[in-house]
Amino acid sequence: MDFDLFVIGGGSAGVRCARIAAGHGARVGIAEQRFWGGTCVNIGCVPKKFMVFAAEYGMSAEDARGFGWDIARGAHHWPQLIAAKDKEIARLNEIYLRLLNQAGAQIFEAKARFIDAHTLDVGGERITAERIVVATGGHPVRPDIPGAELSIVSDDAFYLPALPKRVAIIGGGYIGVEFAGIFAGLGAETHLIYRQPLPLRGFDEDIRLGLADALQANGVVLHRDTTPESIAAEGEEKALALSDLSVLGTDLVFFATGRVPNVTGLGLEAAGIKVAENGAIAVNEDLATSVPHIYAIGDVTDRLNLTPVATAEGHAVADSLFGNRPRKVSLANVPTAVFSIPPIATVGITEAEAPQGARVFVTRFTPMRHNISGRPRKTLMKLIADATTDKILGIHMLGEDAPEIIQGLAVAMTAGATKADFDRTIGIHPTAAEEFVTLRTQTRIVGDEIAGA
Ligand SMILES: Cc1cc2nc3c(=O)[nH]c(=O)nc-3n(C[C@H](O)[C@H](O)[C@H](O)COP(=O)(O)OP(=O)(O)OC[C@H]3O[C@@H](n4cnc5c(N)ncnc54)[C@H](O)[C@@H]3O)c2cc1C
Question: Is the pLDDT of residue 273 over 70?
Answer without folding.
Answer: yes
